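Q: Given only this backbone (331 positions), what sequence would you predict?
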């Protein structure tokens, strides 16, 4: 089945907007999570002091890499050879420098605003089952203002990809969606976390119905959004008022609803996951790259699965060059 998704002027640029964050990755057990009294697998917003105190209690040396959901997706698209831009805000500190350098290294065009606050950080706690639980200090990333979102942010964008974490700033989210629509871009929204969906459900449904063309969710997010555990029913409800709905079901693959048809995409690979950080973000990289290049829905989904699988074989959201070469052979 050929993808006939209409993209203005056949623009292949994908612009991601979201939190410019640096990921701090550590391996811990469930007991450590219990002591912190946080929900496993979710994302909890914390202040700088709490994050710093938690880090000081961890003796293991962490792995530090640039992150943020939309940014991970955009870097993945650029690594596939696609046209990619990231819009975000960071501090004038060493973390901000690391973030900017990494975007340039990965050939990502950027529109980065600066703040006096520290660059945002995420403590990603990886348990032995490869699940990741996040403590997030948004820092500078939370200071993007709606008036900073101009037409130039989304100039020539075929798709604007928005991370669900932006639902914490509703005024900004609306400004982004209005600007993306004004630019003639399709809007892709990753629901990001079941905790986000639970806290923003009414507003989320309103903006999905009004603005969103592509909605992407995992099992927990879909349950929180639709109220259904049944996968086919959930993806059916996800697809209401959007062009494409995606339900990712982990190791079992994914379901994609397009033009009234639900397509099952099988998973790839047989190695156990080392870390699931960035799995959904990189799935979106492959899928959106496929859409702007007019691949079939099946191939878009397969490429998404392949990117999601490969990132689970490493710690963090950066797929190594060797694995990217293997992915490109699929193309």
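A: Predicted residues:
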């Amino acid at each position: 089945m050929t993808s006939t998704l209409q993209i203005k002027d056949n623009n292949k640029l994908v612009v991601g907007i979201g939190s410019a964050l640096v990921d701090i990755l550590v391996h811990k057990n469930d007991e450590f999570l219990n002591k912190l009294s946080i929900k496993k697998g979710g994302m909890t917003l914390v202040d700088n002091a709490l994050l710093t105190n938690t880090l000081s209690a961890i003796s293991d040396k962490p792995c530090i890499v640039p992150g943020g959901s939309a940014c991970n997706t955009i870097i993945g698209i650029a690594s596939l050879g696609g046209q990619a831009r990231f819009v975000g805000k960071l501090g004038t500190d060493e973390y901000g420098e690391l973030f900017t350098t990494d975007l340039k290294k990965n050939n990502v065009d950027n529109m980065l605003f600066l703040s006096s606050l520290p660059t945002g950080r995420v403590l990603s706690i990886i348990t032995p089952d490869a699940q990741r639980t996040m403590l997030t200090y948004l820092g500078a990333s939370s200071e993007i203002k709606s008036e900073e979102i101009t037409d130039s942010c989304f100039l020539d964008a075929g798709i604007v990809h928005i991370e669900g974490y932006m639902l914490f700033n509703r005024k900004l989210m609306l400004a982004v969606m209005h600007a993306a629509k004004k630019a003639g871009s399709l809007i892709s929204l990753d629901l990001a976390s079941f905790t986000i969906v639970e806290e923003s459900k009414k507003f989320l449904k309103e903006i999905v119905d009004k603005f969103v063309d592509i909605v992407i969710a995992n099992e927990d997010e879909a349950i929180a959004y639709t109220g259904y555990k049944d996968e086919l029913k959930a993806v059916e409800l996800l697809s209401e008022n959007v062009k494409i709905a995606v339900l990712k079901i982990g190791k079992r693959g994914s379901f994609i609803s397009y033009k009234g048809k639900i397509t099952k995409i099988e998973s790839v690979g047989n190695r156990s996951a080392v870390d699931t950080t960035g799995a959904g973000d990189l799935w979106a990289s492959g899928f959106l790259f496929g859409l702007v290049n007019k691949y079939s829905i099946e191939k878009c989904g397969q490429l998404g699965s392949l990117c999601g699988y490969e990132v689970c074989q490493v710690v963090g959201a950066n797929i190594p060059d060797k694995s990217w070469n293997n992915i490109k052979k699929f193309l």
